[in-house]
Predict the structure of Phosphatidylinositol N-acetylglucosaminyltransferase subunit P.
Amino acid sequence: MAESQSSPLNSPTSGRRTLSFSRRERARVSISVEAEGVASPRSPQPQSLRGVPKLSEVYGFVGSISTVVAMVIFFVWAYIPEPWLHSLGITYYPSRYWALAVPTYAIVTIVLALAFYLGSNFIVTPPPTSFNTMFDQYSRERPTFINPVHGKERPIDPISDIGIDHINELMFNTR
């Protein structure tokens, strides 16, 4: 309960609808449209905590910025000629071989992982002619007895599998 009150989405400045099912109060819907930075007597948050980003948002922002910076450094290292790097004072860097090798190894690893995944699924799957594709330990056959029907009311049949002979009759019968 306290976590939902301290969330910035439920603050009066968020502009979102809030629905309260508090046991002390009746259910109510309120729409907050107060101005930014104006303190509200109804606000459960202090003024200093409003607008504070969540930790996951901070991690996402730092991760995206660091990814862009690493990509720029990689492309600078891969495409700028060595004399230019030496003139900038950069003399210690990996061989240019790795500029092609690392992406190639990564792509080959992904392709092989997908191939092994598909292959393992084909090995584990029974052939189409196997009865294991139609029946297993969870299969339920329809009951053979028929309950007498009283008037227009008919009981609901219990959950069961439809037999392959019945499916074939429904799909391929040429009446």
Notes: The chain has three domains: 2-49, 53-93, 101-140. The CA atoms of residues 7 and 89 lie 49 Å apart. The first helix runs from residue 2 to 6.
